[in-house]
Design brief:
Chain A: This is SUMO-activating enzyme subunit. The complex is a heterodimer of chains A (535) and B (341). By secondary structure, chain A is of the alpha/beta class. Chain A is built from 14 helices and 12 strands. Chain B has 341 residues and is an alpha/beta fold. Chain B is globular and about 55 Å long. Classes of the chains: A alpha/beta (535), B alpha/beta (341). At the A-B interface, α2, α14 and β8 of A face α1, α2, α3, α11 and β10 of B.
Chain lengths: 535, 341
């Protein structure tokens, strides 16, 4: 390997490579490339972690994996393949989540440098905090399509990953999803919610039935009339979608009638909604169009998945996927639920067909299953070359870190198109200093201006909870406590398995949060409510 | 490109290439599928190019190298097993290359470039050459020009790398974003609302390339080129000195001769700068010291850039570099510039 041949590297670098223990977080697109670079360069002591297993869609770039490895642990197979480059290298592979308590500050302290190769913000936040706490240099990187970036994170020297607020994930108002969709994405989100209502973990934030509390609908007399209309069971009280489905034995035709006919008629009765909008058209199960508007006859111009289905085809796919999902659900243990997975054929068929039926009802253009999968699954297109380039840059920066030359670790960007000076790999001029007000890495406690009535958003260090804390000021009694919790909504502890294995899927789920440290500046009492994460 | 009826992408291919089809589209994938690529030189840089284009799903890759696997290969050539030391490098790379993607036809060729008739190269749509003498690069470029074959050549020396492109005439579609400022007067003359609109359009473009000879024969004393020197990165002269080194010594700089080779290289740089009437310190000495073997992360960078240029070329999507791309490790910068026009 390079560090074992005299004269390839200067002495200090050669020694650093031969003796450093390094950690790679993630064994996907960037991780495989980093691991290869490390082994070929001559590192002897490498640890790598990934909670995921190998999927066929990984194989176009995660080159340490081959078809026969599909389903196996990424970290473990990466290790095996890398060993074939140098059988004497020590690689420890963990098939585990880096956010597990097993990998605390003391675990991270063992490494000379940590290299992130992650695809989601939550894990990046976590490793950021660990490396700051352990004071270990972290090289952060990422790619999306043709572009990518590499940056060094070192306590008190550079910005940490959370110094600057990141754009929050796009969310949609409940009434748009439930009552007045106007874009395909609204229908897709609705369909994912429907999946959860029928087959997945029940979540009141994911209601799919018409929203009577919609401010746009205020002042409708007709609503009361329809409310009284007897439904299929002759029962006028509202039941949850899940209860209703169970009672109907998940009969696709009955589900169809409720979701795409009865509920639509209900929406129509909320006349105010449709004053300035195209009203939806309820569908009857046996009477849907089977031609596709504007479809072309070119059969090999597009992939099978890229063809737009006719509404009749959607209904058929809705019915069959619904039945299959019901069977899947029946086979589960009591209390278990299905989890939506874009790579599960029935789950994806279900969402695609529902989204298109709903889109048709609301006069929204339909999308192909291919496009819906991208949107529903948050797929980021990925190729081998971007990952190779970025991983190469990561290891070059690691060389500087190990030689103690942190001043040479300015961030570097890979651009799709070269800039006006024809530069495609673009280095920053200098390191960027930390944000002095950063709640994660700033050593000083700045005045935060907390007053009576302030609402503080907080999360715990391990990101298990997100809290809204309402500050109410009271007079301090002589022997009273400094603060008291005067009210709290029942909170479920955050499930440790929240971080699902996601192949190439980002999971940006944070708003900007602020943490209160120590006592607040006023003597206050607070109430805590658990806020659910949106997906 | 070779003429061939459009073949349907199979279900298996659609699954395997899903994440890249979502980026460059189905049409690009179909064009890749027809491309026959010759990769000359299978050290670290060549191996990385092979990996990337095999994963991308070209029709075929011929790996050509008459040399045998040596210790230095283990710095960056991850396709050859350690057990294959002493065996032909192309053949030793075959098994792992094939494992990357069973759908690509991969063959090894042990022969020397100089022993190949010109007609041999006509079997390919793209030729990518490394580890050659300047004369060999020039010969290959000529043959490719005569046969409308897209030509790439370059090398990685330690931490430094470059790639030259001669695509003759390259037509492509590119996405062009135009930002237009529109003014909306709101009655009062002073209160004008400015709106900006961003439109993305697919437009046709063309790039014309000069032969390698022209790119290497730049006269830096001429007015137009002398002007460029003011703000120019010195990588061009590092490349020229390294080419001269290889031509004169019959080998790339060697780790076992580190001190001596660095001195020789400095001499070659000095000669070239003097000849071109450029000040001696134009090339920082630091740029000349880490030029040994082929360092894996740099092979990864250059292999990635080069493969992406090959993909752009074959798919005729987006504007390729014209005509030399350099990676300068001191500044950690990767850029292209045009020489010889």
């Amino acid at each position: 390997m390079a560090a074992s041949i005299a004269g390839v590297f200067e002495n200090d670098l050669q020694q650093a490579i031969n003796s450093s223990k390094v950690f790679v977080v993630g064994a996907g697109g960037i991780g495989c490339e980093i691991l290869k670079n490390l082994v070929m360069s001559g590192f002897n002591d490498i640890e790598i972690i990934d909670l995921d297993t190998i999927d066929v869609s990984n194989l176009n770039r995660q080159f340490l994996f081959h078809k026969q490895h599909v389903g196996k642990s990424k970290a473990e197979v990466a290790r095996e393949s890398a060993l074939s480059f140098n059988p004497t290298v020590n690689i420890k592979a963990y098939h585990d989540s880096t956010m597990s308590a097993d990998y605390g500050v003391n675990f991270f302290k063992r490494f000379a440098v940590v290299m992130n190769a992650l695809d989601n913000r939550m894990a990046r936040n976590h490793v950021n905090r660990m490396c700051l706490a352990a004071d270990v240099p972290l090289i952060e990187s990422g790619t999306a399509g043709y572009e990518g970036q590499v940056e060094l994170i070192k306590k008190q020297l550079t910005q940490c990953y959370e110094c600057l607020p990141k754009a929050p994930q796009k969310t949609y108002p409940g009434c748009t999803i439930r009552n007045t969709p106007s874009e395909p994405i609204h229908c897709i989100v609705w369909s994912k919610h429907l999946f959860n209502q029928l087959f997945g973990e029940n979540d009141p934030d994911m209601d799919v039935s018409p929203d009577t509390a919609d401010p746009d609908a205020a002042g409708d007399a007709g609503m009361a009339a329809l409310k009284g209309e007897a439904n299929d069971q002759g029962n006028v009280t509202r039941v949850t979608t899940r209860e209703w489905a169970v009672k109907s034995n998940y009969d696709p035709e009955k589900l169809f009638r409720k979701l795409f006919h009865d509920d639509i008629k209900y929406l129509l009765s909320m006349g105010n909604l449709w004053k300035n909008r195209t009203p939806p058209k309820p569908l009857v199960f046996g009477e849907v169009p089977d031609a596709v508007a504007g479809c072309s006859n070119e059969t090999d111009a597009v992939l099978k998945d890229q063809k737009i289905w006719s509404v009749a085809e959607c209904v058929e796919i809705f019915s069959s996927s619904c039945r299959n999902l019901y069977s899947q659900q029946q086979r589960l243990d009591l209390g278990d639920n299905l989890v939506w997975d874009k790579d599960d054929k029935d789950a994806m068929d279900f969402v695609a067909s529902c989204a298109n039926i709903r889109a048709y009802i609301f006069g929204i253009p339909q999308k192909s299953r291919f496009d819906i999968k991208s949107m529903a699954g948050n797929i980021i297109p990925a190729i081998a070359t971007s990952n190779a380039i970025v991983a190469g840059l990561v290891v070059l920066k690691a060389f500087y870190v190990l030689r103690g030359q942190l001043e040479n670790c300015q961030s570097v960007y890979l651009r799709n198109k070269p800039n006006h000076k024809n530069v495609q790999i673009v280095p920053e001029a200098c390191l960027v200093e930390p944000n002095s007000k950063c709640y994660v890495c700033s050593p000083k406690h700045e005045q935060m201006g907390v007053v009576n009535g302030s609402i503080l958003k907080a999360d715990d260090f391990l990101q298990n909870y997100e809290l809204n804390i309402v500050i109410v000021q009271r007079c301090l009694t002589r022997d009273g406590p400094l603060f008291e919790i005067i009210g709290s909504e029942t909170a479920k502890p955050g499930s440790p398995e929240k971080l699902q294995p996601e192949n190439g899927q980002t999971d940006d789920d944070d708003d900007v949060v602020h943490v209160i440290d120590g006592e607040s500046t006023s003597n206050a009492t607070s109430s805590i409510r658990k806020r659910k994460l949106e997906t | 490109m070779g003429e061939m009826a459009s073949v349907d992408i199979t279900e298996d291919e659609a699954q395997l290439y899903d994440r890249q089809i979502r980026l460059w589209g189905l049409e690009s994938q179909k064009r890749l599928r027809k491309a026959r690529v010759l990769v000359i030189g299978a050290r670290g840089f060549g191996a990385e190019v092979c990996k990337n284009i095999i994963l991308a799903g070209v029709k075929s890759v011929t790996i050509m190298d008459h040399g045998v696997v040596d210790e230095q290969d283990f710095c960056s050539q991850f396709l050859v097993p350690r057990s294959e030391i002493g065996k032909n490098r192309a053949e030793a790379s075959l098994e792992r290359a094939q494992e990357l993607n069973p759908m690509v036809e991969i063959t090894a060729d042990k022969e020397k470039i100089d022993d190949k008739p010109d007609s041999f190269f006509g079997n390919f749509d793209v030729v990518c050459a490394t580890e050659c003498t300047t004369a060999q690069f020039l010969h290959l470029d000529n043959v490719c020009r005569e046969n409308n074959i897209k030509f790439f050549c370059g090398d990685v020396y330690g931490f430094f790398g470059y790639i030259f492109l001669d695509l003759q005439i390259q037509e492509f579609m590119e996405e062009v974003t135009t930002i237009t400022n529109t003014h909306e007067p709101t009655g009062e003359p002073l209160a004008k609302k400015r709106k900006t609109e961003k439109t993305v359009q697919n437009t046709k473009g063309t790039e014309t390339y000069v032969p390698l000879q022209d790119a290497l024969d730049v006269d830096w004393t001429s007015e137009s080129y002398a002007k460029r020197l003011k703000r120019m990165d010195p990588s061009y002269f590092v490349m020229k000195a390294l080419l001269k080194f290889c031509d004169k010594k019959g080998r790339k700089p060697s780790p076992s001769e580190r001190e001596k080779d660095i001195e020789s290289l400095k001499e070659f740089v000095k000669e070239e700068l003097t000849k071109q009437k450029i000040r001696e310190d134009f090339v920082p000495e630091l740029l000349l010291k880490d030029v040994f073997a082929e360092i894996s992360p740099v092979c990864a960078i250059m292999g990635g850039i080069t493969a992406q240029e090959i993909i752009k070329t074959v798919s005729q999507k987006e504007r390729p570099h014209n005509n030399i791309f350099f990676f300068n490790p001191l500044k950690c910068i990767g850029y292209s510039a045009c020489f010889g026009v």
